[in-house]
Amino acid sequence: MASGALLINWLDAGEDQPTRIGIITTKRLGNAVVRNRARRLIREAFRHLRLEFTRNVELVVVARPSIVRKDADRVARDLQRFALKVGLIPESMP
After folding, report:
1. What confidence tier does 14 reach under pLDDT thresholds 50, 70, 90?
2. How many CB atoms lie within 10 A of CB 53?
3. Which residues face 24 on adjacent strands?
4. What is the average pLDDT value for the chain, to the nearest integer?
5. Which stretches of 31-94 are DSSP H helices?
6. Which of 6, 16, 10 is nearest to 87 (CA)?
7. Which residue has the higher pLDDT, 88 or 24?
8. Biggest alpha carbon distance in the chain?
């Protein structure tokens, strides 16, 4: 599922498995500095949002080229929009 600068695949994990994330950044994004920044933005957005997840999942997040122009808040909104759409977090989240 595409959500802004992110392309996200997910799979429900077992109840005994923690929620976790895998991040993919390709060389199409830019050099190592750009790719590392994209990974940091995604990890930080996930860190803040994962405590609100209603079930355990395994996420694979692919950074799309538009992430290069986004700041942390916009990446976090993209991830939150995805989580709301697929029902990973309750609707009452701000």
Report:
1. confident
2. 16
3. 62
4. 92
5. 32-49, 72-85
6. 10
7. 24
8. 39
